[in-house]
Specification:
Elements: E1 3-8, H1 16-26, E2 34-39, H2 51-67, E3 75-79, H3 85-93, H4 99-103, H5 106-113, H6 122-125, H7 127-137, E4 142-144, H8 150-167, E5 176-178, H9 211-219, H10 237-250, H11 254-260, H12 267-293, H13 297-324
Parallel strand pairs: 1-2, 2-3, 4-5
Helix pairs in contact: 2-12, 3-7, 3-13, 7-8, 9-12, 10-11, 10-12
This protein binds adenosine-5'-tetraphosphate.
Adenosine-5'-tetraphosphate (AQP) binds at residues 8-9, 11-12, 15, 17-18, 20-22, 40, 145-146, 148-149, 183-186, 195-200.
């Protein structure tokens, strides 16, 4: 059976962008693939973060995974920091990616340019190396991600070529990024030129927002001049973003949504339909989350997940160590 691997980093409150671009799709892989889904908590340390915030976000993500329909019997749900092989493979792979290619990563450029240039952590720069370790430890065939993570998976593909060629063996499986056709890049509701992002929350809808707040945020989303509702991301970015949200949550294509709204000539009416759709989906999701977040299910799932993930990851790590010439004692 082929493997799928994905994760979310607990850097903030999860947004509707994370839900549509990632979380909502994860359960689709658990019947077809051997599914590994983790919480990328080591990645969350790449920017300064309050410890209690990180801990709470981590618990939240486990509860969100379960509320989104991930079944621990079918999907291995685990914490990155529970599987030490991630850090160990990172220490090896860091020698096989180059500073030039890491400095060209869009996410690094975006995040680092907002920072004091003398205080950019090495971890932020080397973020894609750890992400390669995450993917390659499980020999993942597919990596479901939103648009912004595609570049990192492509860098990982370069690393696989380089590593396998250097040692003349197919040690690592070539991963393929899987980007949702609809909703791979949900934009901010207050500035549709910017991605909705949990660590830079402007115009975000959070998955834990009160439903009334969600409605208010959608009703006051920035729109464009005019009153017709059609998809045109260049000239109507605000309306197009709301259409994208609606399409993703209705499992419809943009063409179908264009057709559905062609006779609506009032943004207010359109926004109300979008708000109803978001609430129809997020309302029951929040109820499931509330039933899980204070139960002992979270620790049980993580404990079981750590065992299963470590077993697979340690096997790969051992092969890599032998391949690069590290001495591995017979057991
Ligand atoms: N706005 C978005 N639209 C669609 N997909 C999105 N994703 C993130 N934002 C959107 C997808 O969510 C998954 C988890 O992302 P991550 O936690 O690994 O970090 P990220 O990609 O950097 O997401 P954020 O929310 O912007 O986090 P911060 O602010 O911490 O960097 C990924 O599959 C991502 O593509």
């Amino acid at each position: 059976m082929k493997r799928s691997l994905s994760g979310i980093k607990p850097t903030g409150n999860l947004t509707l962008g994370n839900y549509i671009g990632a979380l909502r799709n994860f359960k689709n892989y658990q019947d077809e693939y051997e599914n590994f889904i983790f919480i990328a908590d080591l990645h969350a340390l790449t920017l300064p973060i309050e410890p209690s915030f990180l801990r709470n976000n981590t618990k939240d993500i486990v509860a969100f995974y379960l509320a989104a329909g991930l079944d621990p019997e079918k999907t291995t749900i685990f914490l990155q920091s529970d599987v030490s092989a991630h850090s160990e493979l990172n220490s090896i792979l860091i020698n096989y990616l180059y500073m030039g290619e890491l400095s060209r990563m869009t996410q690094f450029k975006d995040k680092s340019q907002k920072m004091n240039q003398n205080a950019i952590g090495l971890g932020l720069f080397a973020y894609p190396v750890l992400m390669c370790a995450d993917i390659l430890l499980y020999n993942a065939d597919v990596v479901p991600v939103g648009e912004d993570q595609k570049q990192h998976v492509e860098l990982c593909r370069d690393l696989v070529h380089r590593f396998n060629n250097r040692y003349n063996k197919e040690l690592f499986t070539m991963p393929t990024p899987v980007i949702p056709k609809i909703g791979a890049r949900i934009m901010s509701l207050s500035d549709p030129s910017k991605k909705m992002s949990k660590s830079d929350p402007k115009g975000d809808i959070f998955l834990k927002d009160d439903l009334n707040i969600i409605r208010k945020k959608i009703m006051s989303a920035v729109t464009d001049t005019g009153s017709d509702v059609y998809y045109d991301p260049i000239n109507k970015p605000g309306i197009s973003n709301l259409m994208m949200i609606y399409a993703a949550l209705s499992d419809k294509t943009i063409e179908e949504v264009n057709e559905q709204f062609k006779d609506i000539h009032q943004y207010g009416t359109f926004k109300k339909i979008v708000a109803d759709k978001v609430i129809e989906e997020i309302g029951p999701f929040q109820e499931r989350y509330k039933a899980i977040i204070n139960s002992d299910l979270i620790d049980k799932v993580l404990e079981e997940g750590a065992k299963k993930a470590s077993y697979v990851a340690n096997k790969t790590l051992s092969k890599v160590k032998k391949t690069v010439g590290l001495y591995v004692r017979k057991k």
